[in-house]
Every structure is written in structure tokens, then in C-alpha cells.
Amino acid sequence: MTRDTAGVDQARGWIAAARKLFVLTGAGISAESGVPTFRDALTGLWSQFDPEDLATEAAFRRQPALVWQWYQHRRELVSAARPNPAHHALVTLAAQKPVTLVTQNIDGLHQLAGSQHVIELHGNLFANKWLDGCGRCHTVPPVPGEPPLCALCGAMMRPGVVWFGEDLPRVARYRADHAAENCDLCLVVGTSGLVYPAAALPGLAKEHGAKVIVVNTEPSALDATADLVIAAPAGACLPLLWPQAPAASSSSGSTKPSQAS
Ligand code: NAD
Fold first, then answer.
1. What is the pTM of this model?
2. Residue 149's beta-bridge partner residues?
3. Of 95, 115, 121, 198, which sits most exposed with the smallest number of CB within 10 A?
4. Cα of 141 to ligand 1 centre, how many Å?
């Protein structure tokens, strides 16, 4: 407890002094919104599956309806979720400092809280795209529980997320690398640090001279890179790390959110 309080004070000082922040978030930041992380056991019907076996192109080709329904289940979960104080605190931070917000999350909760220019490294649950489409794809009304098919070529629609083994979207990757290389403080929130290349970004920031702060309820693979680790839930911790503007001033229009990449 004493150690955590000391960490919060230290982090407050570093964040107050920072000129350009780079924030990397993972599934843990949405845990307090009720969105399970991959390391949480899946519940109910889905408890028998390992997410790492479902979130691959091979799994989708093998069992398209199963994978499609899993994403449908996740869309429903996320649709019922609301941003928590950690998401809101990052909106406040961006009103005070240049911040590049990079997320591995696919839930859109940062945007729902009001963050702008969020770099989504792993796509978004609510975007779909075609798998091997003909370029002129359009849908016929889908069979319930199955991915929609293209009326012209029969290609399947797939979730617009980055599956294990796939490349990150090029522009997002470039912008994230550039921001990591050019920040003076990197704040890492709620990520296990096991999924690459996202997990390499704090190290890149550090190589370029930035301090690294990790906020996580558990030890993570990025603790070794961090200058400071705060063992706390994101929703309780982030609002303590910088001044939280009173509600009235955030709607006054006098301070524009500024996010720089
Ligand atoms: P992860 O599941 O590997 O790790 C989550 C981390 O969050 C863990 O280290 C855990 O200790 C920490 N954590 C849990 N609750 C926390 C809290 N309240 N406050 C702070 N930390 C907390 O997630 P990851 O590192 O993001 O990587 C896994 C992949 O899973 C990513 O590609 C991501 O796209 C995907 N994913 C996304 C969502 C989402 O969009 N919400 C949910 C599940 C998985």
C-alpha cells in the first residue's frame, strides 16, 4: 500500500513534467467496464474455448459459424459496456497535454469516452471486412449465426480485427512507432505485454529516452522495461495521476483536446 502511494506520487510528478505522452492500453483498462480480458476465464458457453484458438484465420476458415458467433457474443458484451473512470481520465489528460493514445483493444470504449484520434492497433469489433473478396462484394441477407456471404463471389465477411499471426494495419503501426520514438513519457495500462508487436512499443519509447510507467493489477512482462510499476486497477489509479478537470470546464470549449502523433 505504501509502495503504491509512493508510486502514484512519483508518477504524478513525471506526468506533470512530461511534454509528450504516449499511452498504450490493453484489455485490462476495460476490465472494470465488464469486458473480460483474454486471460480471464471465458464464461458460459464459451468457457470450453481458448480465445487464442478462436482468434485466428485458420479457425475462421475451419469453423466460420463458431468464430462468427464468438465475435457476435463479444459485440453484445461490449455494446452493454460503458467507459470507466480510466477511459474518462485519459480524455482529461489529452485536454492538458499532447497525448498519443494507442490501444490494443477492439471495444471502442476510448472513443465512447471521448478520446479522439485513437490508434487502434488490432482493429475494431464493429468493423467487418471480406475474406478473399472479389473487390465488388456486397451481401445477401445472412443466415442467422453465420457470416454474411458476398452475393457475387461467395466470399465470407469476417470481423475487422487483427487475428493472431496477422500483420498490424500499416498506418496504425507507423503512427504508433513514430509516437513511441518521440515521447518523453510512456504510460502502459492494463496489458500483459505478451502480444507483439504492440508489446515492443514501451521498449521503443525507452530506447529513445522516455520514462515508462506501468499500471496493472498483476505483474506483467513489461515490468522489466518500466521505470515505475503501479500495482492497482486502472479505474482507481488513473484519475489520481493528473488533475481531473471539473465537468463544467470540459464542456466550456476553452481547452481543445490535443492529441499528437
Ligand atoms: P491481456 O488479456 O493479455 O492482459 C490483460 C492485462 O490487464 C493483464 O496483465 C491483467 O493483469 C491486467 N488487468 C486486468 N484487470 C486490470 C485492471 N482493472 N486494471 C489494470 N490492469 C488490469 O490483454 P492484452 O495485453 O490487451 O492483449 C491481449 C489481446 O486481447 C489484445 O490483442 C486485445 O486486442 C485483445 N482483447 C481485447 C479486449 C478489449 O478490446 N476489451 C478484450 C480481450 C482481449
1. 0.91
2. 156
3. 95
4. 34
